[in-house]
Design brief:
Blueprint: H1 3-68, H2 70-76, H3 84-101, H4 111-132, H5 139-152, H6 156-171
């Protein structure tokens, strides 16, 4: 083969190679676009089914946080005896029962949100226990001590509820 023949062969092959490369590039771009579109449609369809369930989980946890807020808890749960320890245990049992009832909701929310809710629950129990260690001897005095502690600082339930509301608002963005 002479140099002219090689140059002529190259001249014939060059447009085919360029056309093939351009076609490959556009085909690959189209395939990626279609994958993205399919993923988007699949995500959109699954959101239609899961969003109401997730919102319901957040609603239930908001209700849980409202129910364990100390000011509403001590008003809602009346002492059943004159023993301060029994009342303290009753309050803690109410919180634990509410929490166990809503335990399955954790699969619908973020780990950070669930951890904040658990922290609010544990902090509320800790406040009840610390009030129970005071020198009071009646359940009514214990109620008073608990309410006084909630007046001094923000309730753990309110802080957790604010986080839940923020996370729900993030679902819309």
């Amino acid at each position: 083969m002479s140099g002219d023949q090689i140059l002529q062969l190259f001249a014939y092959l060059m447009p085919a190679v360029v056309t093939g490369a351009v076609a490959f590039y556009f085909f690959r771009l189209h395939t990626r676009n279609e994958d993205g579109r399919r993923r988007f449609l699949l995500h959109k369809d699954s959101q239609k089914d899961t969003l109401p369930i997730r919102l319901q989980a957040y609603e239930r946890m908001a209700l849980f946080l409202e129910r364990i807020a100390l000011n509403s808890l001590v008003v809602r749960v009346a002492p059943t005896s004159k023993n301060k320890g029994d009342y303290e245990n009753l309050l803690i049992k109410q919180i634990e029962t509410e929490f166990e009832h809503n335990l399955s909701q954790q699969i619908y929310m973020s780990d950070a949100c669930w951890n904040i809710i658990k922290t609010a629950k544990n902090t509320t129990i800790q406040i009840i226990r610390s009030a129970g260690m005071s020198a009071t001897d009646s359940p009514d005095k214990l109620r008073e001590d608990i309410l006084n502690q909630t007046m001094e600082k923000e309730s753990p339930s309110n802080a957790a509820l604010a986080y839940v509301k923020k996370e729900v608002s993030d679902l819309w963005s």
